Amino acid sequence: MEAAVVAQAADGREIWITLLGDSEGLPLVVLPGGPCRDPEYLGDLAGLAEVRPLAILHVRGTSRTGGTSSGWWSDAADAVAALDRLGLDSADVLAHSAGTRLALSLVAQHPARVRSLALITPPSTWLSGVEYDGAALVADRAEPEVAQALASMLGPDPADEDEFQRAWEREQPAGYGHWTERERRHAPVGGMALAPSAAWFDGIPADARERILRAPLPPTLVVGGALDILTGVAPVRAYAEHLGAELAMIPDSGHYPWVEQPTAFRRVIDPWATATR
C-alpha cells in the first residue's frame, strides 16, 4: 500500500510524507539524502516496508514539498511537524546520506522525539574529523566511469543548474560498489536541484557539531558500505565511535546497500527495525 499525508510546517509550508507498507506497528520515519533528493530512490528499502510501515519525508526542496531548504539544522522543525502529523510522540528514525545530518539535528534539538536512529552511509568527515579516504577505493575499480566520477567530485563546484545536473550524472558511478545494469537503472531515480542542495548547508550554527556530540543520543546504528567512494571508510568508522553507535559495515556495497546488497542490508537493519515496534 502507498498513500500520502501532509504535515503543516510553522511557516505554512505543506511537508509531504509518503506512507508505504501494510505491516503492523508504528511507522519508521525515513529521511532521504541528496541533499533534497526526491525520495523515490529509496524504494521500499529492500522490502523493509513489509516489516514496519515507512513514513518517508519529502524535505523542503524536493518536487512534492517544494520551496527550498532552510538548512539541515532548521529543517528539524519540519521533521517535528511530520511526527506531530503522524501522531508520534517519539519515533524510530532511519536516515540516508545527507539526511543523517537532519536526523542528528532532530536529536540534538528535540531528543524526546527520537527513540532510536539508523544512519545509513553517512557523510562523516564533518563530524569525525578523519580525512576522506574514498579516493583509495577507486584504485581497485576497473570501470573508467568511476575514475571520471571521482575527478568530477574533486573538481570545481557547479556554477549553475546545467553544470549541476551534468556533474551529478558524471558522479553517479561513484555511489556504487559496481556499475552494472542494476546500478545504472537506480542511479537517476529521484531528482535533485542545485539551489535546494546548496541551501541545505545554510544557517548551520557554528557549534552544531559540538551540540550533537553533547546530546544524549538514543540507541544508534550506523551502516556503512565497504566500497562507498562517496563517504570513504575510515571517516564512517570514526563517526560511529564519536556517536557511541553500533557500526555495521556491509561488504561489497557502495552508498546504496539496499540496492546492491539487499539481503545483507536487511540482515543488519531488521533487528533495529523490529526492536521497538
Dominant shape = globular
Instruction: Say how many strands there are.
Output: 8
Mean pLDDT: 96
* Structural class by helix and strand composition: alpha/beta
The N- and C-terminal alpha carbons lie at a distance of 19 Å
Which parts are unreliable, with pLDDT below 50 for 5 consecutive residues or more? none
Number of helices: 11
Beta content comes to: 15-25%
Give the strand line-up of the largest sheet.
1-2-4-3-5-6-7-8
Largest sheet: 8 strands, mixed
Describe this structure in words.
This protein has helices at about 75-85, 100-110, 125-130, 145-155, 160-170, 180-185, 195-200, 210-215, 235-245, 255-260, 260-275; strands at about 1-10, 15-20, 30, 55, 90-95, 115-120, 220-225, 245-250. By secondary structure, the protein is α/β, with parallel strands linked by helices. It has an eight-stranded mixed β-sheet, with helices on both faces. A hairpin with a 5-residue loop joins strand 1 and strand 2 (about 15-20). Helix 1 (about 75-85) crosses helix 2 (about 100-110) and helix 2 crosses helix 8. It is globular, with a radius of gyration of 17 Å.
In short:
With 277 residues, this protein is of the alpha/beta class. The protein has helices at residues 76-86, 99-109, 125-128, 144-153, 161-171, 181-186, 194-199, 208-214, 234-243, 257-260, 262-274, and strands at residues 2-8, 14-20, 28-31, 54-57, 91-96, 114-120, 220-225, 246-250. The longest helix is centred in the last third of the chain and has 13 residues, at 262-274.
